[in-house]
């Protein structure tokens, strides 16, 4: 009888121990699962906290331009949620650079406005001033790369800058360039839409000195550059935006035919007039789609 009771006690202890082991194992598995879930959640939360740094875009007015020239376009792009107004950079006639506004490198597509106090100066001077601006942005704001937009002479200025600086490491790398109504080959307009500067398959029939210089120095332009060239035609028979002919604006295709990508768009009608191009919401959309295709 004692042997039977002893045997039963041993069996009971075995099952109790067995149950304890498996219970502990299941609890450990559950704890491991919960720990893994916590770690996974933490990883997701951490990834959500990682902030992206977008490439800022500089906007430059044309000949005799003011803060309103590109300012309204910048305001619309910001109000649409595509971008964020950021710094305003003004340059004195002596080339001194003054910056106002707050710089947040984590802002969505920061917009930087560039203003020349002497807004009727030469291409040579304005090219130097842009170098001063870019040096300051690189050295003091640690901006490694930018996009640039220029209306009229502003587009010519950026072209001069690109051909002067190219890929020099002291300056921010220019990723994308938008020219709006820029006279790359002079300002002649024909009443019948014809001039000596009309385009042929190989380039303008006649080249201005400025255009010839651009063609000579275009090898300095970064091969990685992406370009959007916008022209206007008010459709009054002159084939122009009333200030710049289609031929002059679109002659840019020969200056930028060696870059990573080149696209040109021609807008028509009353809103394609030279000073209205930067007030045209269709132009806004084209600029936004080009600069920030994923926004």
TrEMBL record:
Listed GO MF terms: hydrolase activity
Name used for this protein in its record: Alpha/beta hydrolase
InterPro entries in the cross-refs: AB_hydrolase_fold, DUF915_hydro-like
Domain of life the protein comes from: Bacteria
One Pfam family from the record: DUF915
Keywords: Hydrolase
Signal peptide extent: none
